[in-house]
């Protein structure tokens, strides 16, 4: 278990789709442990393997109820109701903006042993699932903003990074 360096925006690895995990072994468990430790140190509530440079479909979330790992997560259903929620990223610290997301979703995923799982979520957990699955698909969260909002946010981040 160790804290790994976080890939920072505008690193191109943040816009590349992650590969499915096919081997469920001690190396995968070690990666999940590193993700958890790195996320807590950031600090953050969600992180993906691409955030530390590993292009694999692994997500760790901790919304105050203990860290949970999702391997190969996919959205299988999304409610028509939408909500706005303020989002940010460990790869772009110090900036955030409101993003529209589905209010409720259902995901399928595998646990660290490769067992198929399903989970329904709403509110913040649903937002986090959608945000991190976007990241695994190569869509960095700011791509969901209008061009004008995205450009302003990038300028703000660049200014913070220089300070």
TrEMBL record:
NCBIfam families listed in its UniProt record: pept_deformyl (TIGR00079), PRK00150.1-3 (NF001159), PRK12846.1-5 (NF009484)
Cited SUPFAM superfamilies: Peptide deformylase
A Pfam family: Pep_deformylase
Name recorded for this polypeptide: Peptide deformylase-like
List of catalytic residues: 132
Keywords annotated in UniProt: Hydrolase
Annotated signal peptide: none
Record InterPro entries: Peptide_deformylase, Peptide_deformylase_sf
GO MF term set: peptide deformylase activity
Keyword Hydrolase attached: yes
CDD domains: Pep_deformylase
Keyword Kinase among record annotations: no
Family to which this protein belongs: Belongs to the polypeptide deformylase family.
Lineage: Bacteria, Pseudomonadati, Pseudomonadota, Alphaproteobacteria, Hyphomicrobiales
